[in-house]
């Protein structure tokens, strides 16, 4: 399913959160505040099975994680 928990080991404020499909189409976008070790839940039940990218952008840096929805 499209239920994701995102956790960072440090605080990150006013970050862009994007979820894209493998072709780069943006399926979800928001601005989030990540507190150290506190999960943020993103629930996208309409996501089809496949590979997606979760990207966090903050102060010119990016973190990208590939996830598979089964």
Task: Note down, in words, how this protein is organized.
Helices cover 0% and strands 64% of the residues. The protein is mainly β and 70 residues long. The strands form 2 sheets. Strands 3-2-5-6 form a 4-stranded antiparallel sheet, with no helix packed on it. The mean pLDDT is 91.
In short:
The protein contains no helices and 6 strands. It has 70 residues and is mainly beta.
Largest sheet, described in full? 4 strands, antiparallel
Terminal residue distance: 6 Å
**Arithmetic mean of pLDDT:** 91
Low-confidence stretches: none
Reading side by side through the largest sheet, how are the strands ordered? Answer: 3-2-5-6
Tertiary shape: globular
SS content category: mainly beta
Our estimate of the beta-strand percent is over 45%
Helix % is under 10%
Rounded to an integer, what's the Rg over CA atoms?
12 Å
What's the SSE pattern?
EEEEEE
The total of beta strands comes to 6
Number of helical stretches of at least 4 residues: 0
């Amino acid at each position: 399913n499209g239920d994701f928990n995102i956790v960072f080991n440090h605080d990150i404020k006013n970050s862009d959160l994007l979820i894209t499909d493998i072709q780069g189409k943006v399926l979800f976008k928001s601005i989030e505040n990540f507190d150290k070790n506190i999960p943020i839940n993103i629930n996208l039940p309409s996501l089809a099975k496949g590979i997606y990218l979760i990207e966090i952008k903050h102060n010119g840096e990016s973190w990208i994680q590939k996830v598979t929805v089964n």
